[in-house]
Amino acid sequence: MAAVIxxxxxxxxxxxxxxxxxxxxxxxxxxxxxxxxxxxxxAIADVKPAGAMNVKNEGSRNRVFTDFAIEIGIAKKxxxxxxxxxxxxxxxxxFDEVDALFRKKxxxxxxxxxxxxxxxxxxxxxxxxxxxxxxxxxxxxxxxVSR
Length: 147
Hints:
Helix content: 25-40%
Oligomer: single chain
Strand content: 35-45%
Radius of gyration: 16 Å
Strand order of the largest sheet: 1-2-3-6-5-4
Distance between the termini: 15 Å
Shape: elongated
Low-confidence stretches: none
Number of strands: 6
CATH architecture: 2-Layer Sandwich
Largest sheet: 6 strands, mixed
Order of helices and strands: HEEEHEEHE
CATH topology: STM4215-like
């Protein structure tokens, strides 16, 4: 049996790959960060563990509640001659669609994990556009697990 946080990452990647999104997106669990901006050929999502924290349990002495944080890094190659505002809007839509797969739900493939919170961080910068022709961002999601 893998660590709970790895099982959560794997379940998230499977859910993303099974979803019908507005743009093609391939997800996989990656434990070691990689610099892929220059070699991108399609939109990808790297799912990685970000941390865990035990949460005080008011309701039971027999159960431990743990919050598991993951990060979904999404990168997409873009044509710099394209309308960059339109490409940026499309990326925000994609992040919202991925977030909606999990928001206020139990995690498909790991039903003990329940969505707790999400946050999107954009890493789109002028240098990414000029040097790498890529939009990059990270979706931080916390799932709560009772054990």
